[in-house]
Design a protein that fits this description.
The protein has 444 residues and is an alpha/beta fold. It folds into two domains: 18-214 and 336-443, Aminopeptidase (3-Layer(aba) Sandwich), CATH 3.40.630; 217-325, 2-Layer Sandwich (Alpha-Beta Plaits), CATH 3.30.70.360. Helix content is 41%, strand content 23%. The protein is built from eleven helices and 16 strands. It has helices spanning 2-43, 45-60, 69-82, 139-155, 177-183, 241-259, 297-317, 341-355, 373-378, 411-432, 440-443, and strands at residues 85-90, 94-100, 106-112, 163-169, 190-203, 207-209, 212-215, 217-226, 230-231, 266-275, 281-282, 285-294, 321-325, 337-339, 360-362, 381-389. Strands 1-2-4-3-5-16-6-15 form an eight-stranded mixed sheet, with helices on both faces. Strands 10-12-8-13 form a four-stranded antiparallel sheet, covered by helices on one side. Helix 4 (139-155) links the parallel strand 3 (106-112) and strand 4 (163-169). The two termini are 15 Å apart. It binds zinc ion (2 copies). Belongs to the peptidase M20 family. Pfam families: M20_dimer, Peptidase_M20.
């Protein structure tokens, strides 16, 4: 906390010292562009219809993580039409676009592209045409909004003080596409990254976020508990893995309830229990699996450590042996999503000017997770929720429901916020450079 305040003071000090007379002109002109004008541009019927068309096209053809080939192609076709250069393929299907000078500083905007393996149950004209696949998390809208922002930014390219990097990312839903994008080495030297998720729980025209942790870190585990099978009526000749697994599960529940600080929210759920197939047979083994969540990496690692200890130790009490797999390849763990404090102040100011500060709400942390967290581990990042609820029309379902719907009226807000955040942040960096030359990256 003290560190945070000291940096703010330092910035104000430098700003007062030299920035005002040098940059007042550029500041006023670019600031005006990045606030109300971007929202008006995004609400323009032509741009709005274009975004809606893109979103519906993607919605009709949902693709799962690392299979977003048609979605990726659609994005590249639109970027080509807009004259925006890009790198492809990145992380299998990812597309990284560039708008601006092509030189530092770089600020990234991210949209995820993947759908979910579930059947859409909404009957409408643009229902998913692929059985068993659906955009039930709104990533189709995220792509449309980032393309909308790209269009606005391209039209103002000569006013951009650096480079906006568009990150169309694969496989957010459990595939850790963000990590793969980072591993590809295409996001070197980013000064900041912004991302959003549309949310049916907030009214349209509002945003919600907070500084610090907003989503939990999330991991999975699977354990096999091995005993010795035999006749159910002669248990003395068997080693019963069903009973051992039952005790393991009960013991696992003690980790959060007895070992974790009650003020440090954590979850450990066993959602899978498979073993046995007959009423009168003790099986050889039982497989259990579950998920665990925490808001700090320390708590997360402690949970992981104790899960393994409790499973193997408790199984041993029942004469079984157990192996624990954290599925690092298949389901890599997501770190907690933690918003940078300085970016929070910046976001409140930019979003406040764009939509009104009374529409910028505080977000309570959620136990869900977001692979945007991977970016935040490497450079400062900020993630927020974009409201889309219109109570006068209908109540919207939560993400991952087969009845999930997107209120497309939210698209202009997302596009304008993306465009405003990127241009304003580059402007802010531009203003800082002569003052703290070569140091502004460290400052953040
Ligand atoms: Zn989702
Ligand atoms: Zn999502």
């Amino acid at each position: 906390m003290a560190f945070f305040f000291s940096r703010v003071n330092l910035f104000i000090f430098f700003h007062l010292l030299v920035a005002t007379p040098i940059f007042s002109e550029s500041s006023s002109s670019s600031h005006a562009i990045s606030t109300t004008k971007f929202l008006d541009l995004a609400k323009d019927p032509q741009l709005f219809d274009w975004m809606v068309g893109i979103r519906r096209k993607i919605h009709e053809n949902p693709e799962l993580g690392y299979e977003e080939f048609q979605t990726s192609e659609l994005i590249r076709v639109e970027l080509d039409k807009l004259g925006i250069s890009y790198k492809y393929p990145v992380a299998v299907t990812g597309v990284i676009g560039f708008i601006g000078t092509g030189l530092p500083p770089f600020v990234a905007l991210r949209a995820d592209m993947d759908a979910l393996p579930m059947q859409e149950l909404v009957e409408w004209e643009h229902k998913s045409k692929v059985p068993g696949k659906m955009h039930a998390c709104g990533h189709d809208a995220h792509v449309a909004m980032l393309l909308g922002a790209a269009k606005i930014l391209k039209e103002h390219e000569n006013e951009i003080r650096g480079t906006v990097v568009l990150v169309f990312q694969p496989a957010e839903e459990g595939g850790a596409g963000a990590k793969k994008i980072l591993d590809a080495g295409v996001l070197e030297n980013m000064s900041a990254i912004f991302g959003l998720h549309i949310a049916p729980t907030f009214p349209i025209g509002e945003v919600a976020a907070r500084a610090g942790p907003i989503f939990a870190g999330s991991g999975f585990f699977e354990a096999t508990i091995n005993g010795r099978g035999g006749h159910a009526a002669i248990p003395q000749h068997s080693i019963d893995p069903i009973l051992a697994a039952s005790n393991v599960i009960v013991s696992l529940q003690h980790i959060v309830s007895r070992e974790a600080n009650p003020l440090d929210s954590q979850v450990l759920t066993v959602g899978k229990f498979q073993g046995g197939g007959a009423f009168n047979v003790i099986p050889d083994s039982v497989t259990i699996g579950g998920t665990f969540r925490a808001f700090s990496k320390e708590s997360f690692m402690q949970l992981r450590h104790r899960i393994e200890q409790v499973i193997t130790g408790q199984a041993a009490v029942q004469r079984c042996n157990a192996t624990v797999d954290f599925l690092d390849e298949e389901k890599p763990f997501f770190p907690p999503t933690v918003n940078n404090g300085d970016l929070h102040e910046f976001f409140q100011s930019v979003a406040g000017s764009l939509i009104g500060s009374n529409k910028v709400k505080d977000l309570q942390p959620l136990m869900g997770s977001e692979d945007f967290a991977f970016y935040q581990e490497v450079f400062p990042g900020y993630f927020f929720l974009l409201g889309m609820e219109d109570a006068s029309v209908e109540r919207l379902e939560l993400p991952h429901s087969p009845y999930y719907k997107v209120n497309e009226d939210a698209l202009p807000y997302g596009a304008a916020l993306h465009a405003s955040l990127a241009t304003s942040y580059l402007l802010k960096l531009h203003q800082q450079v002569p003052v703290v030359e070569g140091k502004h990256h460290d400052e953040l």
